Amino acid sequence: MMQLKLQTVICSTRPGRIGPPVGKWFNEFAGQHSSFVSELVDIADYNLPVYDEPNHPRQQDYQKDHTKAWSAKIEQADAYVFVIPEYNFCPPPTFFNALNFIYNEWNYKPCGFVSYGGVSGGLRSAQLAKQLVTAVKMMPIPEGVLVQMPWNKVDDKREFTAEEPHKNSATDMLKELHRWAAALKAMRE
Hints:
Mean pLDDT: 96
Number of helices: 5
Shape: globular
Largest sheet: 5 strands, parallel
Radius of gyration: 16 Å
Oligomer: single chain
Low-confidence stretches: none
Number of strands: 5
Order of helices and strands: EHEHEHEHEH
Structural class: alpha/beta
């Protein structure tokens, strides 16, 4: 099986966020259970302000160091899994912003979602995010992981304990994500 690079992207930057423990779990799971080389990427590490580039992202004429760093990181992957909370039934604004900072780097790559939130498990956020990623020519896959009440699954050491439904959903999502990543790689070459 072709080895491809997967980035697990933590989308929330809010203080006290649950994203890092959930993202760490998924990234480690992906590294053990798929044909991907998996890397954890945290949007918070890039300190992206509200979009501040003078040129359209399609031109890739980036002026700001934070954009250049973000572009270089995202360019490396063949596929993405966005670890995404639900804020007011929507993805966090940091997701929208990070998506909009660049364009070509996302093109013709598949993505999946590990969503989390209250009783819906962030499903509404993930559904809206799937529509948004198509604008940058990404292929969102139907399979995903929903984590209901994640704060009840994180211990005092900030470790997330996945349950069988999470693991089973993650396995299914990774298999499908790899199929799409392998197929779309030809479009990028």
